[in-house]
Request: fold
Amino acid sequence: MTLGVVMLVHTGFDRAAQMVRHWSDAGCPVVVHVDSNVGKKAYDQFVQSLADLSDVRFCARHRCEWGTWGLVAASQEATTLLLEEFAQVQHVYLASGACLPLRPVQELRAYLEARPDTDFIESATTADVPWTVGGLDRERFTLHFPFAWKKHRRLFDRFVQLQQAVGYKRAIPDGLVPHMGSQWWCLTRQTLDAILQDPNRATYEKYFRRVWIPDESYYQTLARLHSRKIESRSLTLAKFDFQGKPHIFFDDHLELLQRSHCFVARKIWHDANLLYQVFPRPSDPSIASQEPNSSTIDRVFSQAVERRTRGRQGLFMQSRFPSTDRQNCIAAAPYAVLHGLDDVFPDFQSWLTKQTGAQVHGHLFARDRVHFADESTTYRGGLSDSARLRDYNAKMFLTNLIWNGRDDYHCFQFGPSDSQDIRWTLAKDTQASIWVVSGAWSIPLFASGRSASDVRAEAARLQRIEDLFLKRLRSPQAYARIKITTLAEFIEAPMEMLQSIIDEIAGHKGNALTEVPKMADLKGFPDFLQDLKNQGMHPFLTGNITVGNTGKSSSPQRRKPYVISQK
Amino acid sequence: MPVSGGKRVRSLWLAYRLRWKRRRFLFRIWRKRKQISVKVDRTGGIGKTAILAFVTVRNEVERLPYFLAHYRKLGVDHFLFVDNGSDDGTAAYLADQPDVSVWTTAHSYRLARFGMDWLGWLLWRYGSGHWCLTVDADELLVYPECETRDLKVLTTWLDEQGCPSFGAIMLDLYPKGALEDVKYEPGDDPRDVLAWFDADNYRHRWHHYYGNLWIQGGVRERVFFAQDPGRAPTLNKTPLVKWHWRYAYVSSTHQALPTRLHDVFDLEAGTKASGVLLHTKFLPMIGSKTKEEMVRRQHFENSSLYTAYHQKLSQNPVLWHQGSCRYQSTEQLVKLGLMSKGGWV
Reply:
């Protein structure tokens, strides 16, 4: 019983020759197929370099283009020759010039000898497995593909669209159930004989010639007809990226490959000298019977796919620039926007810092400068407090701030006197919680001591701006968590909203509020609002404030948290 | 994605205009090809798969030893330099290097599109079919895993992915303390002296005309351009391209034509692989260089608008601040989100 190898080569002849020698030295006959695109000189040189090996053959050459029938024709040709010439061969291993055995060939042979009837070929039905990239799964088998995908992409796509539009479907030959999987297999002589000498071979071939990527489906489908025992996995470790392109292994993947205990890996970089030096590892009886296990490698590679296709949330960088039109989770971490609260409670910022330990910024979007939590001129990551720099690209300013400090919870004060470019971003961002006390801008105006007629224009302006902001917050595209109360409602029962804010920021660590922030002195405030009304400027966003509800700043009893005992 | 008819017509029209723009650049490059004259030509030794570096220099003899060492280690096989009238022995130093070819010119740097016309011609003649790195003498390219994987590995992977180019952001390095108070000896790693950088104050926006990602920000914007951010330096670059003679860089390596070359970012949520160009502009010679530039006026289109910048720069300023980040490794840059591994494993 022997293992025979079919090797497909189209480039990197020095490495391929090295591999042929390697298989051959271990007692495996090898049939090499060289792509007919390779020039005569290179081919002759290659053949010459292996002339001293007695059990190496070169078969007739076919043109091998990715995704075309040529690859199947090549492996058929080579397999036929191998089975004819070397009667002792029981298993045939399909490899390429860039496949590198990681373990001694003896171990692979012993493994196969222990499983003489097993065919190792990854083979899954298209209906059940969403492997394919590009959306063509079932349709691979029901459409015609006369154009090469790599060379004539547009023609390929158009022709597919045309067939889809007219509802064309090819008939699948009777008895075939389309399967697909990795093109690198290891099949038994019986199965291969059955496939190659099938009376219907001509029919099947005619059909598969027009299937897309037949080398991933021809043997996979036919093995299901003829095999006595299929192990649906490939003995060759091959990883693909999210576009279905093969990953290449470099020198620094050494450890990963060592830990995989796979028999063969591909694709190995041509110049990965270290890998070619270390592998195949020397024979070691203590681990000779180890099963291949590629779970570590699988994890590393699926992380890479995740990174490539999803990236890091909230990071805007040179190679990740998600368009905000297509997504509504913008910043890297949750944050809170406190609109108007610091007008009601003059030292709200320091109070909230004390209660939660979060990064409580002042008015980040104030018109004079950026008021960071620590009032510094340059904040984390080198963010400047310059209002002009901030307004140059307000959204990037916010995303940078949150990204830099994503370990902390950030909150900032906001109001109608701030720069407003950011409001759409805030409203759309699912990471934002926006707490609004509408009409709170009237308190600083009142506290300034100026008369209603003096501040009338200013009040009207602030109200207009705030109203626009509220309209954004109430639009169907506003995905932020939003809570809006009028000033009147808020001063009636301020603790309710404050407690919710604290709970949200501090999470389970939030305590019942003991210390209440000091509210601005509102004595005479209703009269001030009435004066504004008398001037013709109705402050409709404040709600209905009367003398009765300005006086108290009570703290209703916090209800006991409802905890279910774990006992 | 369905595109409305009007949009489609507009984008076709833009593509057509850009095509002509590229042809005009190529014509201009061809017209100015005689501005440079060869001093040492070792291009005969360039192999078929060689990785080439293209650089314009002026008085960089202090930076060059480390520059060459850095890129040799990264696997650059041949350097093609254009020396723009150095008087500190730069040309002679370069001529002595075994893997360097040198051209010289005394023409205006500014009128040659900041050297891009000269390099454009060299790229045209020698770069076609090669992976070409176009950098300044004060830019050191790093990318994820570059300690163990040289450019040959990176370019093999890019080839396999079908990517014709690789993007990198410029990261200004600066010292702790005043700029000219540090000592730098030729051959030293500039990262030892200029160990600090701004971690994340970079602004990105979509450039409507060229379709590249336009990045501004960083320490120069923070210190010098806070009042005029529109003029802050552009930081996005595409320094590494598998060249074809029909390609052309537009302004420095910020944009390239055809535009797919600088299409190095992902508009969905994913991340492509990218690198960082460590910018060693602020080595102690910055003071004297700035004073020279204030007279020569070769580095900006409207030099008068940058007078304040140059004045501040020549007054030995401090760029460091409390939140500055100390350079440690490429892994750190990946973690900070300045560059990414993308799908590279």
Notes: Chain B touches chain A through 58 residues (CB under 8 Å). The mean pLDDT of chain B is 90. The longest helix of chain B spans residues 5-31.
